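Appendix B. Chain record.
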Amino acid sequence: MTFTTSLKEEISKIELSPIEARCELFSFIKFCGKLGNEIVITLENASVARKIYKDIKLVYNFSPVLTVRIQKRFRVKQIYIITIKENVKKIKEDILNSSIVLESDEEKIAYLQGAFLAIGNISNPQTSGYHLEFICKKESDAKQINSLLKVFNMNSKIVTRGYKFVVYLKSSENISDLLKTFKATQSLFFFEDIRIYRDHKNMVNRLNNCELSNQTRSIETGIKQLENIKYLKEHNLLSLLDDKLKIVIEAREKYPESSLTELAEIITSEYNYKIGKSGVNHHFIKVNNMVVNHKKNN
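Structure tokens predicted for this chain:
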């Protein structure tokens, strides 16, 4: 079962008030129904089919025709067809006017829920990035969904994909907030668990990369300092150095891979010469300047 399927099943089991059920139903039929002399809704999700069937009974007080078919093309699966033959004209008028009369936040949320059940998708956070989308056939519908998401401070955007208009969320925080808004608790907990794990993993990777980078810089710095020390020895220049600088050079030769901070601690403890990282660095700047000046003059 995909994450989209499990989320839709959870949403379809949430109990709504009659007013909320109307908004959810109108939204679903608008985006998923075929409107003609009859209204025909075709679904693959049994839980969503039950939900829409119940909403029709609750809102209009009659039972639509439910047909179950077995589709064998590509893979065997059940198809649920809900056919509305009564009050078709009234239902069409309600659907056309539904987007105008969304007043409360509860009505807007129910309308978004119906839209997601009809045309929504969400990627599995375990296997890919964070992505939730509504795939609309009309630009006006995409703009309507986008504006409703903005009401709840969602940073949604619209892109075209072929002849369709896609409203999408990429921010994990926004997707989490929308699941919370839908009261899809189980899906929210699953999503948050994966998000926390991935964020922790990314943080560990960043720290490891930072540590590796620091180690690389320390090694490169140590190699450069050892090259300068070697130059001083080869040209008999060590006698020109003061005792403290000689201590720092001796420590560097003894501990070639240590960072400047580590070298400062070693010198302080082993050589009884209290010095910090900046002091060690200052000494090696002196060494480097001496090497540079000597090369210029010879």
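Further analysis of this model is presented in Appendix C.
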